[in-house]
Amino acid sequence: MKDTAFTGIALRILSGLLFTGMALCVKMASGHAPLGQIVFARSFFALLPLVLFLWLRGEWPHGLATRRPFGHLLRSGLGAAGMFASFATLARLPVAEATMLAYLSPLFTAVIAAVFLSERLTQARVLGIGLGLLGVALATGPTILEGEGLADGQLVGYGLGVLTALLIALALIMVRRLSQTETAGSIAFYFILTSMAGGLATLPFGWVWTDGQTLLFLVLSGLFGGGAHIAMTLAFRYAEASRLAPFEYLALIWAVLADQILFATALPLTTLVAIGVILLASVLAASEGRRARKPS
C-alpha cells in the first residue's frame, strides 16, 4: 500500500513539474506568436499523448461516447476561455505570479458551490476566501499605488489572472457533474478539441510563421500539458486525493525557482508574502472540501 501511495505522489509531483514546463514554454513563445496560435498549438500537440494514453488503456475510441454533449460543450468552453486567459496572464506576469493567482480557483469553487449547488459555506471556507482576497491585495497593492502597472500590462495581468481562476472554478464545477456519467478521457478529449477550435478561429486575425525555437516551445507546451494531465489522472489511481493534495502546491515552488533561475526575476517581499497567504487560503478551501465529502 505504501508503494502504491508513493507512486501516486511521484506522479502528482511529476504533473506539477510538467505543468510548470508548459507554462514556461507558453511564456517563451508569447513574445513571438499570437495568443490564439499558442492556444491551438498547445491543444493540438496535447492531443497526441492523450490519444496514445487512451489507446493503451483500451478506451479509444469507445471511451469517448457521451450522453451529455451539451455538458461537454459548456465545460470545454469554460476551460478554453480559461486557457486563453491563463496564457494572456503568462504573457504579462512572471510565471510564479500567474501560478499564484490560479490558486484562487478553490476559493471561487467554494463560493460557486455554495450559491448554485447549495453546499455549506463553512467558517474555514469563509476564512480561506478572506485570506485569498488579502493575498491578491498584497500582490496588486504596490502596483496600483505606484501607478506603473497599467503601462507595462502588469495590472491587466493581475485582472486576467483572477479571471483565469474564476473560469477554472466554473470548469471544475462542470467536471464534478460530468464525472458522474462520463469518463476522464472523454472530458479531457472534448476540452482539447474545443480549445483547438477556439485557437483556430483566431487564424484570420493574423498567425505568424515562427522560427525553429518558437516552434519547439509550441510543440513542448502541448506535450508537457498533455503529459501533465495524464500523470495527474494516473496519480489518483494510486493514492487518495487527500494524500495528494499537499503536493499540488509544489507547482508554485517550481514556478518561483523557474522565474529566478531562467528569467532572473526577483520577486518583491509583498509578492512572496502574498504567495504564502494564497497558498494557505487554498489549503483551507481544499481541505474543507475534502472533509465535507467524507461520509459521516
Can you give a write-up of this model?
- The protein is mostly helical and 296 residues long.
- The protein has helices at 2-30, 35-56, 69-92, 95-102, 105-116, 123-146, 154-178, 184-200, 212-238, 241-248, 250-262, 269-293.
- The longest helix has 29 residues, at 2-30.
- The protein is globular.
- The chain starts with a helix and ends with a helix.
- The model is unreliable at 292-296 (pLDDT under 50).
- What is the CA–CA distance across the termini? 25 Å
Mean pLDDT: 84
Strand content: under 5%
State the low-pLDDT regions, or none. 292-296
Give the overall form: globular
Count, helices:
12
H/E order of the elements? HHHHHHHHHHHH
Structural Rg: 19 Å
Protein structure class: mainly alpha
Which percent range fits the helix content?
over 70%
Give the biggest beta sheet.
none
Number of E strands: 0
Q: How would you briefly describe this protein structure?
A:
79% of the residues lie in helices and 0% in strands.
List keywords for this structure.
0% strand; disordered C terminus; 12 helices; mainly alpha; 296 residues
What is the topology?
Blueprint (H helix, E strand, L loop, with lengths): L1 H29 L4 H22 L12 H24 L2 H8 L2 H12 L6 H24 L7 H25 L5 H17 L11 H27 L2 H8 L1 H13 L6 H25 L3
Helix pairs in contact: 1-3, 1-9, 1-10, 1-11, 2-3, 2-8, 2-9, 3-7, 3-8, 4-7, 4-11, 5-6, 5-7, 5-12, 6-12, 10-12
